[in-house]
Amino acid sequence: MKLTFLGTGTSTGVPILGCRCPVCLSPDSHDKRTRPSLLLEFEGRVVVIDTAPDFRFQALREQIERVDALVFTHAHADHVLGLDDVRPYYFKQRQPIPLYADERCMRDLERMFPYIFNHDYPYGGILRIEPRLIAAPFELWGERMTPLPVVHGQLPVLGFRFRRAAYVTDFSVIPEPTLAMLEGLDLLILDSLRREPHPTHSSLDQSLALVERLKPARALFTHIAHEMGHESTNALLPPHVRLAYDGLKVEV
User: What is the pLDDT of residues 136-188, one digit of tens each?
Assistant: First the structure.
């Protein structure tokens, strides 16, 4: 399975509009971060976790030719507003695309994109989906996807474990039962917004403490704000921990 980080930035993206801080002005391409999303490729299938507002740009950059399924962590704008840009894949593939989300997220998506969920929409030209509620582990073409309940401020959201990897973005607390599901990993991908504590996101020190406790072979941090430059932050991290960056590809 190949993983591609479509986006690794926080909700504003980096650079932030109007900001002239050193990271926002950095010439390093690793400091150019679109909104967070992950691409999974296996057995000829393509799965997108979250459709960020930058999805069209990300898909063009990575030359994505098909999308077989959509999986959502939660319905905040920086994770879902690119959903409508999936429709060219529906036009090309000519069959509804399965969309996986928990009950709260599915309800929010239906409120935000009512025409996509309305099978009687009269005007045509829209994405057709197959809504599939996540209530337990599920399979995508033989690959087991295990939902990982975490807390984002006060909002319950999902991470996902697949093979010996896990993707846990947008969290401030990981409950103990979920921590037990994150042991024995080859790759752990965690939210790490900035160095200072934040009420709804994990900080760099918090994420490093989780890596120390869970002991994955490798860890990558995502959902990164403009307070952390790529090279200067990596210089502070253990060798098996790094900041992810847009376009980074890894295998699990």
Answer: 999 999 999 999 999 999 999 999 999 999 999 999 999 999 999 999 999 99
List CB contacts of 192: < 8 A, sequence separation 6 or more. Answer: 202, 203, 204, 206, 207, 221, 222, 223, 224, 228, 243
Phi-psi category of residue 9: left, alpha or beta, with phi > 0 → left and psi -120 to 50 → alpha: beta
Query: Phi/psi of residue 59, each to 5°?
Result: -65, -40
**CB count, 10 Å around CB of 174?**
23
Query: 247: buried, middle or exposed (CB in 10 Å: 19+, 13-18, 0-12)?
Result: middle
Dump pLDDT digits (tens) for 36-56. 999 999 999 999 999 999 999
d(CA 39, CA 153): 25
3-class DSSP state of 44: coil
Task: Say what the pTM is.
Answer: 0.97
State the Cα–Cα distance between residues 61 and 80, nearest whole angstrom. 19
Q: Where are the alpha helices (DSSP H) in 63-127?
A: 77-80, 87-93, 103-112, 114-117
> What angle (nearest 5°) sits at the alpha carbon of residue 153, between those of residues 152 and 154?
95
Q: Retrieve residue 230's tokens.
A: 């790529």
Beta strands in the chain (DSSP E): 2-7, 37-42, 45-49, 69-71, 97-101, 129-133, 138-140, 143-152, 155-162, 165-168, 187-191, 218-222, 241-243, 249-251
User: Which domains does the chain possess?
Assistant: 2-246 (3.60.15.10)
- Beta-carbon contacts of 196 under 8 Å, excluding residues fewer than 6 positions away, are 203, 227
Cα–Cα distance, 238 to 252 (Å, whole number): 20
